[in-house]
Amino acid sequence: MKLLKILISIVLLIWNANTTRTFAQRATKNDIDSLKHRYSPIINGVWVARDYVNSIKKTKSPIKSAHTLDGYAALHIKTNNLLDSIEVGASLNNHEGTLFTLFFIKGCCGKGLKTNIPDYDDEKNFYEIGYEQENGVIELILYHYDKNSLLLDSKKFTKIANRPQDEDLDWGIQVITNKSILDGKYIVQDKYNNKTLITFNSNGIVVGHPQFKTFYIFTDYLGAYKPTIEQICFNIYSKKEKTYGFKIKGDTIYLYDLTGSEENRNLKAGKLAYILTKQPTR
Description:
Layout: H1 2-24, H2 29-43, E1 45-49, H3 50-59, H4 62-65, E2 72-77, E3 85-92, E4 96-106, E5 112-115, E6 126-134, E7 137-145, E8 151-161, H5 171-181, E9 184-190, E10 195-200, E11 206-207, E12 215-217, E13 230-234, E14 242-249, E15 252-259, E16 268-278
Antiparallel strand pairs: 1-2, 1-8, 2-3, 3-4, 4-5, 5-6, 6-7, 7-8, 9-10, 9-16, 10-11, 12-13, 13-14, 14-15, 15-16
Helix pairs in contact: 3-5
């Protein structure tokens, strides 16, 4: 498997180099510099599929919103190193990371910039990246064209941040999920009726709890099995890691011990462990 990955990487590097030379032959330096100046400050940043952003805000359910993360789910674009092309990090299906090249070369219909994103169903099809602005809000757009430059489909992305605070390509997805579900001050009540005021921030940090220091809401539901209970993990990747199921009712979040397992497809809520009550902002 490791050898296969190395071979694939070599093939992609050769293909990228050949593609860069082909595009560069069709564009002058002035053209490229002009497009850099126009696009760089706009496309820079962390972008998440707009359908997911809208869905998670409405449903507050990663399970119900998971279908909106099919295909290209998030993009990390860094334009601070202004070469004639840049590498873009992308989250595919919110499950795996990939890279593609974005060229500062005008696309087929004047709407965007060329990329080397492949269409594995038809190698003659191609993708480009552009943007639209409406009422002062800019959305990134991934255009998908056929060999005759006819638009097959497009996907819009919402800007989450100017730059990621984490190299994981799902960082933007986690941030918008945290903001939509668990962000701000809460009174946490345990099973012994002890109450603590704590703060959750959108970058996954917990402040004020004696045990929980970080939190991670599960968002990756690519597989065929989707549990009926949402999940949140505290202190992930540590010896004190603990995962709970959760349900939301109004401004209150109920955390449950979990029974069963995803492997056996019988994961469900057990005993109530904590009650989190949202506190009003001042």
